[in-house]
Amino acid sequence: MSGQERLAALAREIIDANKYMTLATAGADGSPWASPVFFTPDGYRRLYWVSSPTARHSRNIFDHAAVAIVVFDSQAPIGEAGAVYMRATAGEVPEAEVEAAAERYASRFPELKYFAPEELRAPAPYRLFRAEVAEHSVLVRGSDPEFGTGVDSRRTVVL
Asked: What is the phi/psi pair of residue 82, to 5°?
C-alpha cells in the first residue's frame, strides 16, 4: 500500500468509526462558530445531520454555505488521535431528496428516534442538512515514517 493509500484508508477509518463531527460556520459578519453534530456519511463526499433551522450554525449556513468540518476520536490518548479535515458546501437537503436522505441518515443511528420525512419539513422544528465535501485532508504526525516533518501537519487525500 502506498503512503497516499495508507492516509486515505486512515481517513475512511476515522470517518467510519466516529459519529460526531465539528461543524465550523461563519456568521454574516464573518464571526466563526463551531458546533458538534452527529452525522451520517454517504460515502465520503456527502455528510448528513439533523438540526434546527434556527440554530446558529444553521442560520450561518443559510447566509454562507462554505463550511469546515473535523472528524476525530476525542477519546484517543494524547498524541495518538487521528483527524480528518474537510472543506465543504452545506445546505438544507432539497425537498425532493428528503425522503431518501432521511432513510440514509437514520441507517447509522438505529438507537435514536427515527425522523420521518414530514418531521424534517416546515413547519416541523428540525431539518435535514448535508455537506458536499470538496476536499479531505488528514492529520499527519510529525513522526510519520513517510510524511513526517518533525511537527504535526495536514496532508490532502482523495476519497
From this structure: -110, 155
CA neighbor of 56 nearest in space, from 38, 93, 29: 29
Partnered with residue 33 across adjacent β-strands are: 25
Element (H, E) at 132: strand 127-140
Convert the pLDDT of each residue in 15-74 to its tens digit. Answer: 999 999 999 999 989 999 999 999 999 999 999 999 999 999 999 999 999 999 999 998
If one compares 74 and 137, the residue with the highest pLDDT of the two is 137
Tell which residue, 99, 110, 151, 159, has the closest CA to residue 133.
159
DSSP letter string over 96-117? GGHHHHHHHHHHT-TTSPP--G
